[in-house]
Amino acid sequence: MSQQLTDNFGRRIDYLRLSVTDRCDLRCQYCMPKDFKDFAEPGGWLSYEEITRVVMAFARLGLRHLRITGGEPLVRRDLPILVRELAAIPGIEDISLSSNCTRMEKLARPLAEAGVRRLNVSLDSLRPERYREITGGGKLDKVLRGIEAAREAGMAPIKINTVAMAGFNDDEFDELIDYCAPRGYTLRLIETMPVGETGRKALGSYLDLGKVRKRLARSRGLEPAAMPGAGPARYYRIPGSDTTIGFITPISQHFCETCNRVRLSCEGDIFTCLGDEHRYGLIQPLRDGCSDDELLEHVLAAVRTKPERHEFNENQEKVVRFMSMTGG
Ligand code: SAM
Ligand code: SF4
Predict the structure, then answer these.
(1) Alpha-carbon distances of 6 from 52, 193, 294, rounded to whole Å
(2) Where residue 246 sits, what CATH number does that domain have?
């Protein structure tokens, strides 16, 4: 490898989040408006062949970690076929998936067999009525069965991602820990981000996770822990157990200086920062028949546009797209 993916601030980029669709079968209140229908048209989606070419270019530049996300990635047809192709790319060490698990019961085995190892699941409540309200109609029992199917199919580790919301689920963190602990799942609490109009509205229920961590440290005793996986969470262990809890704090304690990732949308736009609207389009060069070397140059150029940090605190109006477009 002659060139490496390093941005203008010296950060090594070795993690790509790949959004295979901006569609979703849920409407989480902080993510997408209930009546939202303005999705990308299928003709504008990167095909599986185009996605594979882009990931190959990244892999030639040293990319190792790939996360498939959305929207809800499992709503895109034949996802296991894509996973199998991506898993075969030299250099790709690790394919993980972010899903709401509504469709996981049927797809867990084919996805695991195709190469999905690690799974992150959105789960904000264990109370069916509350879950339905937060997700705009989701059925909790189906999701729990989906997570179980993923575990049986061998996906590990499984991380449960919970957006912490005052007045919605801040009385449930202990229940969530008690759900995760015996199953070997890791609970990760996430601060709400002002991404899109929905994210901004949800800031009304923003919770500073520094305070939540102190509260849980008092009730459960928490000690710092390291976890494998190239993520931004800070992990703590409940003493005397294997149970770890992660805190993702983009607002109260940002982690931009160690950011190692960029995102690719289903329309072929590289977003170099969750907190920035700038995008670098790849669909045109791909459809104009660019060579593999030219594609690689585009990837390098895109990564050089990565900003130093997000401005979620100073400039909350900045990001107008919804989180479902770029996959969190
Ligand atoms: N549909 C999949 C899922 O829910 O896991 C993948 C895409 S979803 C956009 C990825 C993650 O982004 C989820 O864990 C979700 O909770 C999180 N997310 C969405 N909007 C958010 C916001 N405004 N602030 C913080 N996290 C958000
Ligand atoms: Fe869908 Fe995930 Fe957004 Fe919820 S967070 S609406 S499951 S994309």
Answers:
(1) 21, 26, 18
(2) 3.20.20.70
Ligand 2 center to residue 71 CA distance, Å?
A: 6
Q: Are 236 and 189 in contact (CB under 8 A)?
A: no
Domain that holds residue 57: 15-325
6 in any annotated domain: no
Q: What is the number of domains present in the chain?
A: 1
Query: Does residue 8 belong to any structural domain of this protein?
Result: no
Which residues have C-beta atoms less than 6 Å from ligand 2? 24, 26-28, 31-32, 70-72, 100, 122, 323-324
**Ligand 1 atom closest to 198 (CA):** 23
In tens digits, what is the pLDDT along the chain, a chain of 328 residues?
557 899 999 999 988 999 999 999 999 999 998 888 889 999 999 999 999 999 999 999 999 999 999 999 999 999 999 999 999 999 999 999 999 999 999 999 999 999 999 999 999 999 999 999 999 999 999 999 999 999 999 999 999 999 999 999 999 999 999 999 999 999 999 999 888 888 878 888 899 999 999 999 999 999 999 876 546 889 999 998 989 999 998 888 777 888 888 999 999 999 998 878 889 999 999 999 999 999 999 999 999 999 888 777 767 676 667 777 766 7
DSSP character at residue 70: S
Report yes or no on 162 lying in a domain.
yes
Q: Which has the closest alpha carbon to 141: 101, 183, 181, 89?
A: 101
Which ligand is the nearest neighbour of the Cα of 69? 1
